[in-house]
Design brief:
globular, transcription regulation, transcription, GntR_C, WH-like_DNA-bd_sf, DNA binding
């Protein structure tokens, strides 16, 4: 917990003079998405409020916002915890991803496309893989898909998928072999990027749809195995 709180203290400068619950929730959402707070983690009001320098009321409102986004859960007389997803949650996340991400690629229009963000995410993933940093590779993978969604140029779509990707990171935390999950998709990200660089959005959409289907099967396989083993790590 100390490492996470140190990171939050670094984020304090982002709040500025106009600290609001929305900005606090933005920071916490990002930290959850980056894997700093794994599923099941209890979030201490005193520790997090102190690290960010915000009032208890502001922090509680931020918690309420993130609970509404299904990232946190409040347990009576116990406190606020990072949510642990179910198999049904994972299936719904991927259903949403398929609907949105494939529609973004399909609706891109005529090339060329602004692919600098996608290319940077692929490069970051390659570096993480070389360093055997599988958490870093997972982060780069999510960044790739976030940049893909951003190609739509829609603030509403970005906002919708921001919480979806944060939930996705919660699912990744319960994968017991992160290298097996994430490493194959680095090459697939590169293939999607190359298809878009060639202006072939039809091929990019096809690759993406297969990619999401395979990823769903792998993550659900892990969740079902955990349930069969007695529900370890599942809520």
């Amino acid at each position: 917990m100390a490492e996470q709180l140190t990171g939050l203290a670094d984020d304090r400068a982002l709040l500025g003079r106009t600290s609001t619950a929305e900005r606090v929730s933005d920071i916490l959402r990002s930290r959850i998405a980056e894997g700093y707070f794994p599923p099941g983690t209890r979030l201490s009001e005193d520790s997090i409020g102190g690290a960010l320098g915000v009032s208890r009321n502001t922090l509680r409102e931020a918690f309420r916002l993130l609970t509404h986004e299904r990232l946190l859960v409040h347990e009576l007389n116990r406190g606020v915890f990072v949510r642990v997803l179910t198999v049904e949650d994972v299936e719904d996340i991927y259903r949403t991803r398929g609907l949105v991400e494939c529609a973004v690629v399909r609706g891109l229009g005529e090339p060329p496309y602004a692919l600098e963000g996608l290319a940077a995410a692929v490069t970051a993933g390659q570096l993480a893989a070389v360093q055997n940093d599988w958490k870093g590779l997972a982060t780069a993978n999510i960044h790739f898909h976030r940049e893909l969604v951003a190609l739509a140029g829609s603030a509403r779509t970005d906002e919708l998928m921001r919480s979806v990707f944060a939930e996705l990171r919660l699912a990744f935390h319960l994968v017991d072999e992160p290298r097996r999950l994430h490493e194959p998709y680095l090459a697939r990200n590169r293939q999607i990027l190359q298809a878009l660089q060639a202006g072939d959005r039809g091929e990019a959409e096809r690759l993406l749809a297969v990619y999401l289907g395979d990823s769903l099967d792998r993550v659900v396989e892990v969740y079902r195995r955990r349930v069969a083993e007695g529900g370890q790590g599942l809520g």
